[in-house]
Amino acid sequence: MRYTISGKQIDVGDALSTHVKTQVGETIDKYSQRPTDATVTFSKDAHQFLCDAVVHLSTGLNVTARGAATEIYAAFEACREKMDKQLRRYKRRLKDHHKDRSGPVEFGQAGVYVLTGDEDDWEAQDSGLQPIIIAEMETRVPTLSVGDAVMQMELSGTPLLVFRNEKHGGVNVVHRRDDGNVGWIDPRGNG
């Protein structure tokens, strides 16, 4: 497994790097997952240290966690405990997910655009105001079942996930609703 351990405005020493590699490895091994790489980033926000970790599993899924504490080792431990909780919660589903798949999750490419939020900056066109694109990027869109999409959204800690539905190939969205439930958008022209 490849590790990338870095700090933003923080020097990450050999002792912390070794500790991170050992602990992340033990946490992942406990749940019989096959990680391909892990990225752990430390930063400081006022008086707190922050630890962000992303572990890419060989199945194509990602596990994301964040921890914060006044000590750097404690911030990592909080992050590791969240990752452990996520993996424990989805242990059976992760194993079933891997067993049912003959290969890793397939990904398609999609464009991501950042639009200016200030309507005063929008361009006037013939049909009305058009937002200005201020950034263009590429992202990957996984092909998953709805259940796996919900699991990936939970593991990554994001409020929504765009995916290609493996049953019919259409683009779908799952999202965390304000009431705590999960919403699923499937725009297949049902009406």
UniProtKB/TrEMBL annotation:
UniProt KW keywords: Cytoplasm, Translation regulation
Matches recorded under SUPFAM superfamilies: Ribosome binding protein Y (YfiA homologue)
UniProt xrefs under Gene3D superfamilies: Ribosome hibernation promotion factor-like, Sigma 54 modulation/S30EA ribosomal protein, C-terminal domain
Coiled-coil boundaries: none
KW Cytoplasm (keyword) present: yes
Subcellular localization: Cytoplasm
Biological process annotations from GO: negative regulation of translational elongation
Main location group: cytoplasm
InterPro entries: HPF/YfiA_ribosome-assoc, HPF_long/plastid, RHF-like, RHF/RaiA, Ribosom_S30AE_C, Ribosom_S30AE_C_sf
Name this protein carries in UniProt: Ribosome hibernation promoting factor
Protein species of origin: Paracoccus lichenicola
